[in-house]
Protein 1
Amino acid sequence: MLLTAATRLFAEQGAAATSFAVIAQRAGVTPAVVHYYFSDRNALLDAVVDERLAPLIASVWDPVEEDDSVATMISGIVDRLLAGVERNPWVPSTWMREILNENGLLRKRVLQRLPVDKVRIIGGAVARGQREGTIHPDIDPVLIVFSMLGLVMLHTATAGLVGNIFHCEAPSRAVLRRHITGLLLHGLEMDAAAQPGRACGRRRVRRKR
Amino acid sequence: MLLTAATRLFAEQGAAATSFAVIAQRAGVTPAVVHYYFSDRNALLDAVVDERLAPLIASVWDPVEEDDSVATMISGIVDRLLAGVERNPWVPSTWMREILNENGLLRKRVLQRLPVDKVRIIGGAVARGQREGTIHPDIDPVLIVFSMLGLVMLHTATAGLVGNIFHCEAPSRAVLRRHITGLLLHGLEMDAAAQPGRACGRRRVRRKR
Amino acid sequence: MLLTAATRLFAEQGAAATSFAVIAQRAGVTPAVVHYYFSDRNALLDAVVDERLAPLIASVWDPVEEDDSVATMISGIVDRLLAGVERNPWVPSTWMREILNENGLLRKRVLQRLPVDKVRIIGGAVARGQREGTIHPDIDPVLIVFSMLGLVMLHTATAGLVGNIFHCEAPSRAVLRRHITGLLLHGLEMDAAAQPGRACGRRRVRRKR
Amino acid sequence: MLLTAATRLFAEQGAAATSFAVIAQRAGVTPAVVHYYFSDRNALLDAVVDERLAPLIASVWDPVEEDDSVATMISGIVDRLLAGVERNPWVPSTWMREILNENGLLRKRVLQRLPVDKVRIIGGAVARGQREGTIHPDIDPVLIVFSMLGLVMLHTATAGLVGNIFHCEAPSRAVLRRHITGLLLHGLEMDAAAQPGRACGRRRVRRKR
DNA sequence: TATGAATGAGTCTTCATTCAT
DNA sequence: CATGAATGAAGACTCATTCAT
């Protein structure tokens, strides 16, 4: 199908570098057919967002509920996002190239679809947790959402690369989930309390400069 | 200068979508001149990596020392990377588009420059920490490096966007550093031990709204 | 109706530049419909001439009678032509573009419809008048017909333009008729005989209506 | 030369229907060359007007002087226009198609070149003549300019056609000049005073050259 | 060293036309 | 009768590249 060919090629080469001709070729039709269905490059991009990205975004964010705990929200989103990305392997590339980038061809279109209310729910919960002392104060309640989505996209996009460089298997979905959720919830450093019989005054990181 | 024009355009439009003609125009010369200095798109990409990206990479990784603590390494890298990116605002876009992506035009070139030995130092330190119980066991010693670099690139690339969506100022370098380092080292959740009725309340960041 | 849309577009853009697609759009149908009714651009052009231009030509020339005076013939034709053009505002443009021009798309089709016999009547009357000394000898009996038709087409086609350039109202049909008929019959220069201190009541041409 | 090929093709097929490819072919170069010199269709049209039409217009209108008689002005313009058109046989077609027509591609460009002041000189002289009783009152001082130019363009454009229809030679420049000037100055009807048994040699207009 | 001229290949897009329904 | 789908050809225009100067 045309949209399928298009999304794959967008992931492979980027949207700007993907000509109608290539999409047509990949889909086994003539370039004019692509124009017949998507009169315009804009129309094509719209269709990609409307028919492919929007449902994914919805499936990730819809289950977020106001009174979930932060940990539940986050691990839930990470889970659903990893699952969604596994079904749509073209997403991470495209996300990073066409949405996160300032002039990404899909940026505006996707931003309009972002469930800002749901995002605010997380922000609110994080801020509340910080006031109550259950969430680390260094974390920014707004940025954390970008960190979360970004970590998933980034690690799924580079999963193959990791295996390549370090000559091992690409990390599985389970490994990614464990790493990402672990990082988001606990960070690197082990709880002082969890450690064997030690005080934790010295917990603040010392930086060289 | 030609390379300067090129890197900016790469950040704005992506490397594949940046023609010699536009680079020439931006630099105020004729397309033939660009072709004269960089006989090939490959040569141009090589030059960008050699003359612009490699020094940055070196400045970030060189200071990493075998016997630093993990926290020191990480906060140091994050610091230097944030500083380097501030001097080269074109980097985050390009990094995400052309390096992290599977078919990114700079990927292979940059990977060869990655100081794998330094990366292994971090991986080793993390793994050691996990054996010693000082590093959270969920964290993947290899993936953490990608998380770290990725978080910096991601947040610097989307700093403007954040301000846009939430109608506030774009987060400053200091805010980004605090958030990223905090996330990497502590994660969201507060130490159980640190919680009840204890000190750190005053650490909260004040935001305007 | 399709032919109406077509004639308007021919006048606006020229026949060669008017695609089936635009005609269809203007008429509110699909391009296939246009093609269904006029299998060919030629068929469409034929239809325009047969159904729209031919009746107009007939209405202009039919009343010309062998024994009318030259003045009667000419003012009659000018009158009827101005009236016909007012009902079919698309005609002047198309006439100049597609009929008078060497490769005009309607030229051959229309020339076959030209009532050559009627044209010859005028030519004959003019030549006779010249022999009798009532018609100015500089006038070419053949060219005068082209002058006559051309002046009407030209002035109706440029009526709007005149208003535009000279910031006045576009000349009305009455003004055009007076100017054109006056020019054809009397030219610019006033009769020497008619000049100072003499009556000239009889000089005005009598028109049938 | 490219412009020469272009102007000829514009006359033959109309500007809208003349593709860069045809111009290139006619000039014996590749289509890209045409784009190299005229980056745009607009640029091409500009060049046609600037380099080909403007000089012609100037050569026709420049000699018009405030205190010439109307007859001198008109016969002078007709003469120079006929001569100019003879050197540039592509002009009449193009004039009628692309300048007189409402959406003609050259219309706006040429109108800006029209020497409005010179046109006003004629209009003024005609109006003055009408007040003094030397110019026929039916003539419109503004329209007469369009009649004059139009008659030349029209008759030169259809000169071939005339020969065709009436199976005679195409009218020569001299014939055209005599007919057009005669029509403009005297019209069809012979002076009442000049009629009975009189020569009319003296009626011929004196032209400067 | 630098550049204007030139070009073949490729881009998006529109067109007239066909065909199955 | 009418039309949505499909397409090959051609449109304007851009590009990387070559070459002579």
Protein 2
Amino acid sequence: MSKSRPTLRDVAQKAGVSHQTVSRVINGSDDVLPETRALVEAAIEEMGYRPNAIARSMARGQTHTLACISPNLTDYTFASVIEGAEVEARQHKYFMLSSSAADPEAFRELVDELVGHRRVDGLIVINPYADQRFEFVPKNFPLVFVGVSAHEKDICSVSLDDEKVAYEATRHLLSLGHTSIALVTGPMEEDCSQDRAEGYHRALTEAGLSFDKSMVIEGDWSATSGRDALLSFIEQGRVPTAVFAQNDRMAMGVMSAAREAGIKVPTQLAVIGVDDMPLSSYFDPPLTTMRQDIPRIGLEATRMLLDIIQKKSTATCDMKLSAELVVRQSTSQKGGD
Amino acid sequence: MSKSRPTLRDVAQKAGVSHQTVSRVINGSDDVLPETRALVEAAIEEMGYRPNAIARSMARGQTHTLACISPNLTDYTFASVIEGAEVEARQHKYFMLSSSAADPEAFRELVDELVGHRRVDGLIVINPYADQRFEFVPKNFPLVFVGVSAHEKDICSVSLDDEKVAYEATRHLLSLGHTSIALVTGPMEEDCSQDRAEGYHRALTEAGLSFDKSMVIEGDWSATSGRDALLSFIEQGRVPTAVFAQNDRMAMGVMSAAREAGIKVPTQLAVIGVDDMPLSSYFDPPLTTMRQDIPRIGLEATRMLLDIIQKKSTATCDMKLSAELVVRQSTSQKGGD
DNA sequence: ATGAAAGCGCTAACAA
DNA sequence: TTGTTAGCGCTTTCAT
């Protein structure tokens, strides 16, 4: 009897009003006399009543919950996006259900459970084109992509302006007088890697340098792949004077390999990355990088999603954020920190 | 009319059976004739029917969702715990709602929304004693602590065996012949830091070394604090021959400061950390550390929580995992990798 | 300003 | 084996 928690009706009974009046009170309706309200509030207080969110979702037809699916939760950039998105969601009294889907099949299942079963009101997908998962994104459902522009023009997205960022990173190396600049990319099936490669290309071209395909090596975002890339250049006997690694982890791998090979950074080899992870300033030497405001990406994605859900905006949006050059010692002997 | 998604009754009508029969089919009940089942399944297929999870939660009185609250989502150890927990939850067809609460007040609000409003069936709290948040954990609700043993004996927990891990780390330095071993701790208000300090202490004592309070400096888990710690030793003119940093990030800070001060690692200063972050093997030099299986902690926490929810076990459990020594060059010139 | 009635989509208990 | 009757706890008409 008094074992389970009180419901709307229990409160109503105690306050001597209809359950509807209690509903009005907890929903902050104006149409209730101050004294009635006080009565109800007293009853609520006394019984320790808390509205049941599930029942509310049921009656209202919406869950007030969003979902964010990313390849994993541990990658620093993903985690930062998620954190930014979650904080913004809570700001708007929404919850964020963040899940990792390692592969397209896991993604498909997740979307089925989350969206198919109406567990959430909207969905954020991080890196939808990292593999075939984009084929399984829901149709006719509030959706925002993160990390890449949508191929289909009716899908909103928030991402880094990869081409521009890469252009600026390369420009930095060029401004230092480098003419032999290697590129270590992420997986080339990701648009992000391609866009960054294009920015690199454009900067070289504008500087009147010819594009040398052998100066480009594909990595997979891991430190190990950065390391392998430099080792490969060394093996081929074509060591560049500068390397633009498309993220900080690979840049770290490059510097690690350089160290072992006795190549001094930055005097013999300048290195620049992208991200500015927390540890980047502790690398040896501290890493010059293009700092992005990653939580901001998550924040904007959530706002966009909420706008879509609340039908505030109907316009498709493709937001591109820029990054800021942070010069440290990996490109400049006297680089600040 | 045909605009909104079909419900159980729509399917029932189409199949010419009662809605209850449809319910039986989607719940895999045996009590339904194969031919009836086929009929229903055909209707489901044809109409594209998907059960509504919210309605189900409503009727069943449980949400099949768990929550995990951590100080933030970006710290590598937290993210790893969460990922491990989330994967295990999905294994059991549960969802994991992971949220960050930067301070006790945010934590309180979150618990109120999540637990008070019955949005989740159980709760995992990472580092409940990092601040005063433990005061706001729900009573009489499925709960598991992560990262520390519960002070109250009726709360389950999963954590690293901090004392043992610190003991082993210190033993490693001792076995290398060091007698001047400094300690850089996490915030001393965290049990974890204290337990690790105790393990360090025990190892020294057992080795017949006197405990020198001035060799212990409190950090805050950040690389910067590790860096400051070593600088402080240098300033005082009492540079140790070895440092046990209670996590890898601080160890990295220590090595970074050593580099700048011209102190060679490991010849003049041996450094060991705890965690084995992905980047630890790329530090300069690669870091010797106590590797913990962090996702495992999340996995066990989820299992424990599910056991509590399903009343499988009533016994309180305080699980302590151990770590594995990984020797790299920061303690040993020829340390493997 | 308040209450009564209906229903959100499902499961559970009981009948048939 | 199947169907009927009640809710789960709330919101939403529509009266009053």
